[in-house]
C-alpha cells in the first residue's frame, strides 16, 4: 500500500532468525512512501522492535533486503552504514539520553555522525548545529530547559529531547520504538501528536512501533499489524475491526477499544 509518492523505504523478504532458532521476521515485504507515518502494532514478540532495528541494522537481518531510496542498506560495509544511519533518526522507548549531560548536549549528540572525532570529543559543534538545536528545543517547548541535566527531566520532557536529537540529524526516515510506553495517557497523546506534526512539517516518513492500538488509530492514516513475524494487516485505522484485531492479538473485548477511540476523538474535538 502506498499513497504519497514514491516508496523511500522498501523491505523485501526481510528475515530475522535468532541463534535460538526463533524466527522473529518471516519474509516481510513493506513499502513506505515519502512523508508517510505508519503505526506498527502487534502483541509482544510479534517482531515489531526487531523489524525497526533491522532497518538501521542495530539488529542484523538474516536474509532479505532493506532499501532506503536507491541505497541497499542491508549490503553496506561499516563506514557506508554509518553514513546511511545519518538518514535514519531513531527515537527510543527508554529515551537513551546521557543523564549527566545537559539537554542541549544530548540534542547535539545527534550530530555526532557529521562532525569529526576530535570535535565531538571536545563537544565543539558548528554554530549552525547549535542554532538548529535551539530551534528544535523551541519547537517542542523545551527552550527554557536547554541547560538542565537530562536526569532532571520528566518522562515526557526526555522523550521530547530524544525527538530533537533524532531530528537534528536531518533524516529522511524516523524509526520510533514504543515512544509512549513509559508515559501517562495525556503525555502519550501529546508525544504522538508532536511526532506526527513534526513529520508533516518536514515531509518525513516514520514507522512508529506502538503497543496502544487506540493511540495508533487516533493519529496515523496507515496501520501495519504484525503477528508471529508476519504482516497480517496493512490498511487504514478504520479497517481494524474487532475480527481483525482478534487475528492480530487474540481474543479480547475489541468493541470497548474501538469505543475508547471514538470517545477520545470526540473529547479532543471539544
From TrEMBL:
<dbReference type="InterPro" id="IPR050086">
    <property type="entry name" value="MetN_ABC_transporter-like"/>
</dbReference>
<dbReference type="InterPro" id="IPR003593">
    <property type="entry name" value="AAA+_ATPase"/>
</dbReference>
<dbReference type="GO" id="GO:0016020">
    <property type="term" value="C:membrane"/>
</dbReference>
<dbReference type="InterPro" id="IPR012693">
    <property type="entry name" value="ABC_transpr_PhnC"/>
</dbReference>
<protein>
    <submittedName>
        <fullName>Phosphonate transport system ATP-binding protein</fullName>
    </submittedName>
</protein>
<keyword id="KW-1003">Cell membrane</keyword>
<keyword id="KW-0813">Transport</keyword>
<dbReference type="GO" id="GO:0015416">
    <property type="term" value="F:ABC-type phosphonate transporter activity"/>
</dbReference>
<dbReference type="InterPro" id="IPR017871">
    <property type="entry name" value="ABC_transporter-like_CS"/>
</dbReference>
<keyword id="KW-1278">Translocase</keyword>
<dbReference type="GO" id="GO:0016887">
    <property type="term" value="F:ATP hydrolysis activity"/>
</dbReference>
<dbReference type="Pfam" id="PF00005">
    <property type="entry name" value="ABC_tran"/>
</dbReference>
<keyword id="KW-0547">Nucleotide-binding</keyword>
<dbReference type="InterPro" id="IPR003439">
    <property type="entry name" value="ABC_transporter-like_ATP-bd"/>
</dbReference>
<dbReference type="GO" id="GO:0005524">
    <property type="term" value="F:ATP binding"/>
</dbReference>
<keyword id="KW-0067">ATP-binding</keyword>
<feature type="domain" description="ABC transporter">
    <location>
        <begin position="9"/>
        <end position="253"/>
    </location>
</feature>
<dbReference type="InterPro" id="IPR027417">
    <property type="entry name" value="P-loop_NTPase"/>
</dbReference>
<keyword id="KW-0472">Membrane</keyword>
Amino acid at each position: 500500500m502506498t499513497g504519497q509518492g514514491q516508496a523511500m523505504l522498501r523491505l523485501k523478504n526481510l528475515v530475522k532468525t535468532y541463534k535460538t532458532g526463533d524466527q522473529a521476521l518471516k519474509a516481510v515485504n513493506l513499502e513506505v512512501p515519502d512523508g508517510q507515518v505508519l503505526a506498527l502494532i502487534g502483541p509482544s514478540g510479534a517482531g515489531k522492535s526487531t523489524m525497526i532495528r533491522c532497518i538501521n541494522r542495530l539488529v542484523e537481518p538474516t536474509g532479505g533486503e532493506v532499501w532506503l531510496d536507491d541505497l541497499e542498506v542491508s549490503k553496506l560495509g561499516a563506514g557506508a552504514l554509518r553514513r546511511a544511519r545519518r538518514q535514519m533518526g531513531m527515537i527510543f522507548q527508554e529515551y537513551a539520553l546521557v543523564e549527566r549531560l545537559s539537554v542541549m548536549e544530548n540534542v547535539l549528540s545527534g550530530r555526532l555522525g557529521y562532525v569529526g572525532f576530535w570535535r565531538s570529543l571536545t563537544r565543539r559543534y558548528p554554530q549552525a548545529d547549535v542554532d538548529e538545536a535551539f530551534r528544535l528545543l523551541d519547537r517542542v517547548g523545551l527552550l527554557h530547559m536547554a541547560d538542565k541535566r537530562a536526569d532532571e527531566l520528566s518522562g515526557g520532557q526526555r522523550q521530547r529531547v530524544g525527538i530533537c536529537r533524532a531530528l537534528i540529524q536531518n533524516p529522511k526516515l524516523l524509526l520510533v520504538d514504543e515512544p509512549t510506553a513509559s508515559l501517562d495517557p495525556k503525555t502519550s497523546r501529546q508525544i504522538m501528536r508532536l511526532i506526527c506534526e513534526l513529520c508533516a512539517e518536514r515531509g518525513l516518513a516514520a514507522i512508529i512501533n506502538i503497543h496502544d492500538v487506540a493511540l495508533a488509530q487516533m493519529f496515523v492514516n496507515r496501520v501495519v499489524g504484525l503477528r508471529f513475524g508476519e504482516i497480517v494487516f496493512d490498511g487504514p485505522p478504520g479497517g481494524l475491526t474487532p475480527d481483525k484485531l482478534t487475528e492480530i492479538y487474540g481474543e479480547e473485548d475489541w468493541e470497548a477499544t474501538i469505543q475508547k477511540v471514538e470517545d477520545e476523538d470526540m473529547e479532543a474535538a471539544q
